[in-house]
Amino acid sequence: MEKIPMTTPLVEMDGDEMAAILWKETKEKLIKPFVDLKVDYYDLNLRNRDATDDQVTVDAAMATKKYGVAVKCATITPNLERVQEYNLKKMWKSPNGTIRALLDGTVFRAPILIRGIEPYIKSWKEPITLARHAYGDLYRATEMRIGGPGKCELVFTGADGTEHRELIHQFDGPGVAQGVHNLDRSIRNFARCCMSYALDVKQDLIFSAKDTISKVYDRQFRDIFREVFMEEFMEAYSQAGITYQYCLIDDAVSRAVKSPGGYVWACQNYDGDVMSDMLATAYGSAAMMTSVLVSPDGKYEYEAAHGTVRRHYYRYLEGGVASTNPLAIIMAWCNALIKRGELDGSEALTEFAQMLKRTTIETVESGIMTADLQKVTTIRKPQVVTGLRFIEIVQNRLTKRLECPAP
Ligand code: NAP
Ligand code: MG
Fold first, then answer.
1. What whole-number distance in Å separates Cα of residue 46 and Cα of residue 53?
2. Quick one: pLDDT at residue 323?
3. Residue 137 lies in a domain
4. Of 17, 98, 164, 334, which residue has the fewest beta carbons closer than 10 angstroms?
5. 64: containing domain
6. Contact 73/252 with Cβ under 8 angstroms?
7. Residue 393 has pLDDT above 90, yes or no
8. Does residue 14 belong to any structural domain of this protein?
């Protein structure tokens, strides 16, 4: 069989631990035998980040800006323990944080739905994709413990020295206070990212906030979303047959639980943090979430939502069996190749990646799965395999399929 050619390279960001092992295997067994793979490779393994003073992460982000599509393996975000474990020069920042800041992007998370792996919420037929604003609010808050009676105010001093004051509270005893902020620029970019993403996947978009209570702060989010929609997206949405709607956060939550899914849900920073955990858990397994970072100017970085799966890695190093689920990693590669194919006008590449996706899903549907899925499947007598064996099985099935394509 002739390998599928590629025109533009895919930016590849390698990573750490168990995820990196499944990563390499996915690339060697499921992509390289079939695609004449062109990559611009960056090794984001913690040792290499340390050796390059984290320059490699910046380079990888810049390459993503240049080529437009990247695929990333999970990476360790060092804490004190990791600094000792890897004898690091410094507690390097989270690579995802660095990349997100450079691309100014929004993260979209969507579950992989498979027959036989049933979500806890029975009405869900299609994934709900959650978009979380990644700037400001509670995560950049300034907080204050109030010791006793007194006046607490919000003061803005303009560049020209003029002051604007609002009373927070006249305290008659001890308490707490908090100041949060956001930027029109960041909210506008967030709105743009969400609107282009929903258009890209041809799904309805809702944005939720609490503007009935927060009449200035949340109202500003609502207004900016509306403005961006009217000015930049309304026509394209009506042509694509999709809608944008603002929704009170309370309604958005009950809608999520009652609906069949199949839409994009944009949330403010805190709501997105909480709701993405709720969705991931309700869909069955952390290993079944995919993630994509989209920048306002349409650059894409795909990855699995889970981490490096450290516990499994140490067991694997000791020679034990690691039944780590490679599905989200395989899907990240597939989605990146589909996007690359779309941008380059290569139908062959897009079709190949779609077939790899189907073959992977059908393998699970036929009852072959890793241990984490065995716990939540409704398939009777599943055959439990390791992550590496699972990839081998998918490879065999894919090879057969490509040798004698279905009529
Ligand atoms: P994790 O790697 O996601 O793993 C947490 C637990 O979830 C695992 O121990 C395992 O549960 C289960 N799990 C996750 N992925 C799985 C898979 N593919 N197959 C089967 N089970 C899976 O999170 P963590 O242990 O908190 O973090 C480990 C490292 O990953 C940290 O250094 C963190 O910085 C990094 N991290 C990176 C990213 C990223 O790069 N995007 C994201 C999150 C965390 P059982 O042990 O019960 O089997
Ligand atoms: Mg959280």
1. 10
2. 87
3. no
4. 164
5. 1-105+307-407
6. no
7. yes
8. yes
**pLDDT digits over 14-47, tens only?**
999 999 999 999 999 999 999 999 999 999 999 9
Q: How many domains is the chain partitioned into structurally? A: 1
Phi, psi of 73 (to 5 degrees): -85, 155
What is the DSSP secondary structure assignment for residue 4, as one 8-state letter? Answer: B
Q: How far, in Å, from the CA of 229 to the mean position of ligand 1?
A: 37
Whether residue 72 lies inside any domain: the answer is yes
Give the helix ranges, DSSP H, for 206-307: 217-228, 234-240, 249-258, 269-282
Segment 203-229 shows an average pLDDT of: 98
Residue 362: inside a domain, yes or no?
yes
For ligand 1, residues with CB inside 6 Å are: 74-77, 96, 286-287, 303, 306-311, 324-325, 372
* Nearest protein Cα to ligand 1, atom 37: 307
For the chain, give the mean pLDDT. 94
Name the closest-CA residue to atom 20, ligand 1: 324
Neighbours of 179 (CB within 10 A): 13
Split at pLDDT 50, 70, 90, the class of 278 is confident
- Report the nearest-CA residue for atom 38 of ligand 1: 307
- The H or E element containing residue 349 is helix 347-365
Total Cβ atoms within 10 A of residue 310 = 15
Instruction: Give the pLDDT score at 406.
Output: 59
What atom of ligand 1 comes closest to residue 371's alpha carbon? 20
- 394 pLDDT tier (thresholds 50, 70, 90): very high
Q: What pTM does this model have?
A: 0.88
- Averaged over 79-95, what is the pLDDT? 94
Distance of CA 59 to the CA centre of its chain: 20
